[in-house]
Amino acid sequence: MTQDTPSIDPRPTQQPVDPDVLKALGDLPEEFQGFPRLFQDEIRPALLTREAERQDAVAKARQARYVGIALAVIGGLAGAFLVRHPIAAIIAVVIGIGYLYWGGRDVRRLGKEAKDLIVLPVVRELGLNFTADPGSVESIYKHRHVRTVPIWDRASYEDLLTGQRHGVDFELFEAHLEERRSSTDSKGRTRTHWVTVFKGQCLRFQFTKTFYGRTLITRDAGFFNRFGGGKGMSRASLEDPVFEKIFEVYTTDQVESRFLLTPDLMQNLVDLEKAFHGGRLKACFDGGEMFITLEGGDLFEPGSMFKPLDSVDRVRELLTDFAAIFGIMDAVIIGRRNEGLARDPS
């Protein structure tokens, strides 16, 4: 009589999620509840393989900082007061700054590589697409058309994120827009220089239904509010005094603007500024699209390389950005649904 051999499950036992990770990510929206496991099983191990490299890079950068500052300060003073030659002082300062920059090159390189280790698993889990260097982004011209960005002469773009939520296509990218300006000195010589007119985040949502009119949301500009939002637009009357202290709203359809700018959406716009670390928010509903721009603030960055690579705060900040984007989209979708029911009760 033979005795059955007990079967052995070949699958590895899954380790419980670190309580500190659960605590750090536990208060995010419900749809992000699977990310503590993703962080522990995939993102953290990948980051830990680069931790020793980070420590070496940081040590090199710190040493270069001390040496570079010393060269700049001591050399500059020596050139100014001992040699008494301003060119020598300038050269010493340039050498010191150059050495400092050279010493930080490994930190900068590692930061770019760590960005991929963090961002790519997150966007894959969310079913989105990410391109760090997209080249040109054609929709910037739509942003210009609806006046969410100013006119520019040259532009560069990075960090293009595209995807879909509840049937709504969206894209997010960072734009740096510059204008060419000229000045003439007292001798009649003309100089051309570039001035940044916008540097920040651009969002575009493509909804399935067309808006009845155009509604533009801008930062309160005080005296300049009298110039309005453009031809055929009038100031919208809102019911949120907090929002009205921050923003001015102009529209071609007063009824639609009240349905669109629900208390939830207005709060989400305020939250978006905080999450994106930006300011001077502008937004516009036009055609079947919503456009949003915020100046300042970099997204999808891995954070400081002067703290451990596997810090859960790196992922938390990224997920907070996504939650803010999704909150805007959800609020607009609900507002559009309510507006449709009110305008067409049948």
What's the short story on this structure?
This protein has a domain of 215 residues.
Supply database-style keywords.
single chain, 346 residues, alpha+beta, nine-stranded antiparallel sheet, 10 helices, DUF3137, DUF3137 domain-containing protein, transmembrane helix, transmembrane
Description:
This protein is of the alpha+beta class. The chain has a domain at 129-343. 45% of the residues lie in helices and 22% in strands. It is built from 10 helices and 9 strands. The protein has a 9-stranded antiparallel sheet with strand order 1-2-3-4-9-8-5-7-6. Helix 2 packs antiparallel against helix 5 (105-125), helix 3 runs antiparallel to helix 4 (86-103) and helix 3 (51-82) runs antiparallel to helix 5 (105-125). The longest helix is centred in the N-terminal third of the chain and has 32 residues, at 51-82. The radius of gyration is 26 Å and the shape is flat. The N and C termini lie far apart (76 Å). The chain crosses the membrane at residues 64-81, 87-104. It comes from Hyphomonas atlantica. InterPro entries: DUF3137. It holds the Pfam family DUF3137. Keywords: Membrane, Transmembrane, Transmembrane helix.
Number of strands: 9
- Within the largest sheet, what's the order of strands? 1-2-3-4-9-8-5-7-6
End-to-end Cα distance, whole Å, is: 76 Å
Mean pLDDT: 82
